[in-house]
Amino acid sequence: MKNVVILGSTGSIGTSAIKVAQDLPDRIRVLALAAGNNSELLLEQTRRFRPEAISIGDAAGVPKLRDAVGPLCEVYSGPEGLVQLATLPAADIVLLAIVGTAGLQPALAAIRAGKDLAVASKEILVMAGEIVMREAHKYGVRVLAVDSEHSAIFQCLDGKPAASVRKLWLTASGGPFRDAAEWPKGKFPDITVERALQHPSWVMGRKITIDSATLFNKGLEMIEARWLFDVGMDRVGVLVHPQSIVHSMVEFVDGALLAQLSTPDMCLPIQYALTYPERLASARVQTDFARLGALTFEAPDEDRFPSLALARHAGEVGGTLPAVLNAANEIAVAAFINRQINFPQITETVRRTMAAHQVVAHPTLEQILAADAWARQTAAAGH
After folding, report:
1. Given CB 3.0 to 4.6 Å as the disulfide criterion, which of 32, 111, 122, 359 pairs with 85?
2. Residue numbers of the domain that contains 9
3. What are the C-alpha distances in Å from 82 to residues 1, 68, 110, 141?
4. Number of H helices, E strands in the chain
5. pLDDT-derived band of residue 382, with 50, 70 and 90 as boundaries?
């Protein structure tokens, strides 16, 4: 039985983790739950799983939750609440499913408290991968991938050393605008928020769905892979695979390739992370190759999707530049969703903010957070 803390329990990853916990009541105990502002769903989850503690983003929601749960569990709030839950003495593993930079402090707190970390929030490794992985090694804890792509790589590597890897291949659906004939670069300014949110393969939150449309999600994943698997950016590549069946591949130095394949369902990588090193039975994912037919691959169009080159550059330079890329992208995506800028201006905002930044090499956590704040202010000033 593993005691699991779910930070971000009401989002798309969190609700999938709840399904996994329901499937495996004898193997997973939900120890604590944290939500942003969806107090109703958090309350429903609390009544179902009876955790030791819960946390809500806004302190104003605490009295209502306390009245509703009574003596059932402790109720916390804000960033301090996330850290409180991440460091609970009984916790075995913390699932980090918080969008953006809010997960960084609880992630480090969990590691320093000796908890394994299941990472669905790629931003923390993009921003502070050097610090996070160094702390994980120092405290002897595992950082387990929850992104389908990184989970696939982790499963294919199966403990093999980084020196045996020629290249890690992250697959991308290509998003809703993959077809250059239907969506030439000249039509990109006309892309609406509603159209950008229509992902062809996955059901996800708004921010990551827009990131998939720009391919920034794949750029962030390249940097994440660099830290998770201890390889240089030159050994991380991207292939567009519209069927989203091959979740990623590892090319080894002898030319062999291993891939992990399944129909798209986030319950699979979540379950693998939460129950690792075991592989437990589940009926959720069924893959019928006879019905699938052909699997196709193509190189990404970096002219229409310059986000990949920006991310590769940020990963190669390192220091505070990946944090700047991530923060500027968050601001730009929010501005696009709020109809303040058009679709191509997301990438342009990131490019402009990165170009204005004075990079700090091997930064401290404080310097990373300062760069993040600077990038948000700089990106927002351009709208």
Report:
1. 32
2. 2-145
3. 23, 20, 10, 19
4. 16, 11
5. confident
In a domain, 309, yes or no: no
pLDDT cut 90: percent of the chain above it: 84
Confidence band for 201, pLDDT divided at 50, 70 and 90: low
Q: Give the tens place of pLDDT for each residue, 12-43.
A: 899 999 999 999 999 999 999 999 989 999 99
Query: Taking Cα atoms as reference points, which of 85, 140, 145, 127 lies closest to residue 273?
Result: 145
Q: Quick one: pLDDT at residue 100?
A: 72
Residue 75 CA to residue 33 CA, distance in Å, equals 10
Same domain for 236 and 325, yes or no, is: no
Strands 143-145 and 116-119: parallel
* Alpha-carbon span 372 to 243, nearest angstrom: 35
pTM for this entry: 0.92
Are 140 and 246 found together in one domain? Answer: no
CATH of residue 358's domain is 1.10.1740.10
